[in-house]
Specification:
Blueprint lengths: L1 E3 L8 E10 L12 E12 L2 E15 L6 E15 L14 H4 L1 E3 L4 E3 H12 L38 H4 L3
Parallel strand pairs: 5-6
Antiparallel strand pairs: 1-7, 2-3, 3-4, 4-5
């Protein structure tokens, strides 16, 4: 949803998004389709910019990093963002960012795209290594069988005879 900055009243604008489908981007090994999101946002004027506060919740179809099975992860979080309007971004020359510059997003064309805002916050809330459940056993390193569905038929691997002396130490 696009929101024109010029259309935001002085008291602010409340936006409620119900069951919005968001494309998380190009193909990835982590997610397995679009996310569905519900959000309540308040967009208010603040100085030379716009302050966006609110919360979102939804579901993201992910792929488990251990067993490579698809599963559905529920995400829920708050978002607080300050957007500068009518200003250009920081200078192109390299310099160390100040604390104030880290928390600012610069708006182009005088519009807020809530889809981009929600997509960014959902991606930031995803775990680095998503697991279908806490005690996921993963895949057998020899045959690739899913160990959550039962033990595989692999036999114990032969130990290299050159390493047999090390086994005595254990």
């Amino acid at each position: 949803m696009l929101i024109e900055i010029s259309q935001i009243p002085p008291e602010g604008l409340d936006v409620a998004l119900a069951e919005e489908t968001l494309d998380l981007g190009g193909p990835a090994d982590t997610w397995d389709g679009p996310a569905t999101v519900q959000a309540e946002l308040h967009i208010g004027r603040s100085g030379r910019g716009v302050l966006i506060t609110g919360s979102f919740r939804g579901g993201v179809p992910l792929v488990c990093s251990r067993c490579v099975e698809p599963f559905h992860l529920r995400v829920e979080d708050r978002c607080d963002l300050y957007c500068e309007t009518g200003a250009k971004g920081p200078p192109e020359e390299e310099h160390e960012l100040t604390d104030d510059e880290l928390d600012v997003t610069y708006l182009e064309e005088g519009r807020i795209n809530t889809d981009h805002l929600l997509r960014e916050n959902i991606l930031l809330s995803l775990p680095v290594q998503p697991l279908c459940h806490e005690d996921c056993r993963g895949l057998c390193p020899r045959c690739g069988a899913n160990l959550n569905q039962g033990a595989c038929n692999c036999t114990e691997t032969r130990v290299d005879p050159r390493l047999q002396a090390l086994r005595k130490l254990l």
